[in-house]
Amino acid sequence: MNKILMTGSSGFVGQSLIKYLGTQEFSLQSLSLRTIHPHLGDLKADVIVHMAGKAHDLRKVSVPSEYFDVNFSLTKTLYDNFLQSNARKFIFISSVKASADQVKDLLKETDVPNPTTLYGMSKLMAEEYIQSQPLPIGKSFYILRPCLIHGPGNKGNLTLLYKMISTGIPYFLAAFENKRSFLSVENLCFVIKELLQRDDIASGIYQVADDDALSTNELVKLIALSSGRKATLWKINPSIIKLIARVGSFLRLPLTGERLEKLTENYQVDNTKIRRALGKDLPVNVREGIIKTVRSFQNADKL
After folding, report:
1. CA 272 to CA 61: how far, in whole Å?
2. Distances from the Cα of 179 to the Cαs of 68, 182, 276, in angstroms?
3. For burial by CB atoms within 10 Å, which of 20, 57, 132, 220 has the most?
4. What distances in angstroms separate CA 254 from CA 30, 101, 294, one per listed residue?
5. pTM of the predicted model, to two decimals?
6. Burial profile 104-122: b = 16 or more Cβ within 10 angstroms, e = fewer
7. pLDDT digits over 243-269, tens only?
8. How far is it, in rounded angstroms, from Cα 94 to Cα 277?
9. Other CB atoms within 10 Å distance of the CB of residue 28
10. CB count, 10 Å around CB of 288?
11. pLDDT mean for each 10 residues of the chain (303 residues)
12. HEC states along the chain?
């Protein structure tokens, strides 16, 4: 039985992974960030799955040093302990934001990283440290860069969009044309499980995303369809919307410049490398995943 030591087990991805793996094949143990120090001793695990981190703060109230203390320093300390332990694999859940905050074409692992936020820079520092250390024989590391993760139990931008569409409020950003990648948490859990079970996958950085990208207009239509509604799309002049968003940023209204960018940005992620490494297709396509997520919102509303 594989012994898995996990950080971030209480979070959305952590809880989803625990349910996905079950307990028949894996022995799962949680490790709190508060207990990570330079001399942990024998970790008594086969695999370390490091999911905990300081998330990107849209409200911008976080202390900048927190990103580097959590995302870099604690990752460094945990990885150092891994190198000195008997554990064989280290799986680090990073982010596509370690590579780029804005994407013009299709983001690939070979692109030169250029993060512009503290979140992305701190994740990149952790990635670079892991890659810079000599890797003992018999050990491997996997740096996973997921894009926007969603699924049952998630409370992110999709929740806000769902609430707007489900109450019949028109989607007034339809004039913006974009394409962006999403990631079903089930696909992420599938990738992690493959890495846990197999020894034929090379160490390195792997982007994780669903196979297809969606425009936000397509996403709105899919949410409306899943909610039993007809989508109402308003094409208002983008210049007017951007002006409203700038005012929103100043007055702290629901529509801010950063939220507008998140909803309308182009951010397509290439998942070719991880699919080729696995030699398998991801189990959930993007539309199936979105529908599952929306239905979980609907079930939550009924409670």
Report:
1. 36
2. 31, 10, 23
3. 220
4. 36, 22, 21
5. 0.93
6. eeebebeeebebeebbbbb
7. 999 998 888 887 888 888 888 889 999
8. 18
9. 18
10. 13
11. 90 94 87 80 88 72 79 94 94 97 94 95 97 97 97 82 86 93 97 96 98 94 87 93 91 84 91 98 95 87 66
12. CEEEEEECCCCHHHHHHHHHHCCCCEEEEECCHHHCCCCCCCCCCCEEEECCCCCCCCCCCCCHHHHHHHHHHHHHHHHHHHHHCCCCEEEEECCHHHCECCCCCEECCCCCCECCCHHHHHHHHHHHHHHHCCCCCCCEEEEEEECEEECCCCCCHHHHHHHHHHCCCCECECCCCCCEEEEEHHHHHHHHHHHHHCCCCCCEEEEECCCCEECHHHHHHHHHHHCCCCCCECECCHHHHHHHHHHHHHHCCCCCHHHHHHHHCCEEECCHHHHHHHCCCCCCCHHHHHHHHHHHHHHHHHC
The single residue listed with the structure tokens 């859990």 is 189
- Cα separation of 202 and 47, whole Å? 15
CB under 8 Å to 84, separation ≥6 — which residues? none
User: Position of tokens 């990738």?
Assistant: 191
Contact 202, 270 (CB under 8 A): no
Q: How many residues does the chain have?
A: 303
Token digits for 197?
A: 């079970």
